[in-house]
Write a structure and sequence with these properties.
By secondary structure, the chain is mainly β. The chain is built from no helices and nine strands. Strands 1, 3, 4, 7, 8 and 9 form a six-stranded mixed sheet that branches. It starts with 5 loop residues before the first strand and ends with a strand.
Length: 102
């Protein structure tokens, strides 16, 4: 098993969020969403809201980190949000770690 390590200040990391039905775990098609956001929250400070794009699957959205996004070491949370004609859904909340550089 490979462990992915994220570092403070690292840019170019693709984060993908998948939307699934809470009762059946089946993927939810969000390809018609007109609003796609990835929300990132570090150990301290405000939630970063970033515009995402459609992912490779109809149930996914994606955001690639930019310089300054991962500004703190520690435990981070990630959540997607989509809305469109007749729907507005948050995804489950995921967790990942960001480590200091030497």
């Amino acid at each position: 098993m490979t462990t992915v390590t994220h570092r403070v200040g690292q840019a170019g990391i693709p984060f993908r969020v998948q939307f699934v039905d809470a009762h059946t775990d089946a993927p939810i098609d969000v390809s018609t969403a007109t609003v796609r956001e990835i929300r990132l929250r570090g150990p301290v400070g405000p939630t970063l809201v970033r515009t995402a794009v459609a992912g490779a699957l109809p149930s996914e959205i994606e955001y690639v980190t930019q310089a300054g996004d991962l500004s703190q070491a520690g435990d981070w949370r990630i959540q997607g949000f989509v809305s469109g004609p007749g729907f507005a859904w948050p995804s489950d909340i995921g967790h990942f770690a960001v480590e200091h550089n030497l």
